[in-house]
Design brief:
By secondary structure, the chain is α/β, with parallel strands linked by helices. The chain has five helices and 19 strands. It has helices at about 15-30, 55, 75-80, 95-100, 250-265, and strands spanning about 10-15, 35-40, 60, 65-70, 85-90, 105, 125, 130-135, 140, 150-155, 155, 175-180, 185, 195, 200-205, 205-210, 215-220, 225, 230-235. It has a nine-stranded mixed β-sheet with strand order 3-4-5-2-1-6-7-9-10, with helices on both faces. A hairpin with a 2-residue loop joins strand 3 and strand 4 (about 65-70). Helix 1 (about 15-30) crosses helix 5 (about 250-265). The longest helix is centred in the C-terminal third of the chain and has 18 residues, at about 250-265. The termini are close together.
Length: about 270
């Protein structure tokens, strides 16, 4: 398409775990004009590896790459000049679209399409189920763990959502912490804490949230977040390695690598 890879503008919908892994990989591949669009109250649980924390903190670093909260086109360009990833509160993607990105990546992981179209950018990529390549976007990236994880789909859809979390050390649903009711979540533990089965890690309106397996608290939603019943609040990693709390996961790295490949398929001419 006649663009230098270093000049490509990439817009990413979402700034949670998967979106942040994508931004991190593109940045390290010297694709550095990156703008991430988030909602005012992000619901990421793996906050130590999610640039959406910049919404609350102003800045967030993930494995040595910095992100900064921006508010308009001028501050986006200032962030890029400083070598930072730009993160905006932009739930309607107005700022994102105003930057006229060469690539849009829908990394919201909503399991459905919330409004992404082929017209969003010259190259539109989407993660997981809810999208059909050639109809909603140009390519879909498989997000389901297993043989096809990271596969780039140019015709068709990703595998349907199973509703079952990925297996880690023999544990699936029991490693995930969910809201016992609707209300405001209050944390009783922190990411990186070691927990035992039955330990209380938080509460929602007086209902305690307890770990069902022993391990390290790898992710936990931000204290004070308003949640709905059944919402994922966090996860316990039964492998018990604290360093995993602060580094990008194998699944996220695989998906991020596929997004990079998809971009290169089109722009590395």
């Amino acid at each position: 398409m006649g663009y230098s890879l270093s000049e490509i503008v990439v817009g990413i919908k979402g700034a949670g775990e998967m979106a942040s892994a994508i931004a991190w990989r593109l940045y390290n591949a010297n694709i550095r004009k990156i703008l991430m669009a988030e909602v005012p109250e992000p619901l990421a649980v793996r906050r130590e590896v999610s640039f959406c924390e910049a919404v609350y903190l102003g800045r967030k670093e993930v494995e040595g790459v910095g992100g900064v909260l921006v508010r308009d086109e001028l501050s986006v360009r200032m962030a890029w000049q400083e070598g930072l990833i730009a993160v905006a509160i932009d739930p309607q993607w107005e700022l994102l679209k105003s930057m006229r990105p060469h690539v849009i990546v829908d990394a919201i992981i909503a399991k459905r399409n919330l409004g992404t179209t082929l017209a969003d950018a010259p190259l539109v990529l989407a993660l997981g189920p809810g999208f059909r390549a050639g109809v909603d976007c140009h390519m879909v990236i498989e997000t389901n763990r297993g043989h096809n994880l990271g596969r780039i789909i140019t015709d068709g859809e990703a595998e349907p959502n199973t509703g079952i979390p990925g297996d880690i050390a023999g544990h699936t649903e029991d490693r995930v912490l969910r809201a016992p009711s609707g209300g405001v979540f209050r944390a009783l533990a922190s990411i990186g804490d070691m927990v035992k089965e039955g330990d209380a890690v938080g509460e929602v309106e007086g209902h305690q949230v307890r770990a069902k397996v022993a391990g390290v608290l790898r992710g936990l939603i931000k204290d004070g977040t308003r949640v709905s019943e059944g919402l994922k609040l966090g996860d316990v990693d039964p492998r018990g390695k604290r360093e995993y709390c602060y580094t990008i996961s194998d699944k996220a790295r695989a998906i991020a690598g596929s997004v990079l490949e998809a971009i290169l398929r089109v722009y590395n001419r």
